[in-house]
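Handoff note, outgoing to incoming analyst
You'll be picking up this chain. Sequence as last confirmed:
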Amino acid sequence: MIETEQFVGIDGAKLGWVAVFASRYDFVDAKCIFVNNLVDLTKTISPTAKIVIDIPIGLEINQPQRECDKLGRQFLGSRRSTLFSPPCRDAIEENSFESANITNKRKVGIGLSKQSWFLRNKIIEARSAISCGLLLNEGHPECSFAAVNGSPILSNKKTVKGILKRLKCLSEIGFDSEQIVSDLPEHKGFKIDDYLDAAILCWTASRVSVGKHFTF
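Most recent structure output, in case you need it:
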């Protein structure tokens, strides 16, 4: 267990989670790991680490949209579609999309997108990890990249232009992406955009550590 101050960014991947962590503000010692379960991170990171994760944490009960999501969309402008509303808390407890959709409509007046429903298991896992002691803060990678870039990045993160632009942003703030992922084994559950999002949230976590972050 590493006991020094750490900044950790986490993004959900197909078969688990991608985490980028560092203990220096220049990110020269940044590392990237893949874990199947969030609680596995407790074996690697400091218990006092500043962690920012791309998963909804606080869920509204009687409101159709979280205030942070509405303000985040305003910040992202034309890229607002990258920030969608998660299910309400009661809908998360349902076991099927159909039941969750009905519950969400009944509780907050709007239905669910399939994309929102697919976050269910990750949301539940994050809630469980918090109960186990992981101090998670919610973040949104596109908002963080917009902060670094000076404006929202218009190209999708899965396109060549979008990938290169985000890698350039990471390089400008100190990440050596090639070195960071050099020791990461090939894994079918790991994609480039998972790394991009985890890395930028690592930067955000470092800003949380010194009070330079902004919130919605």
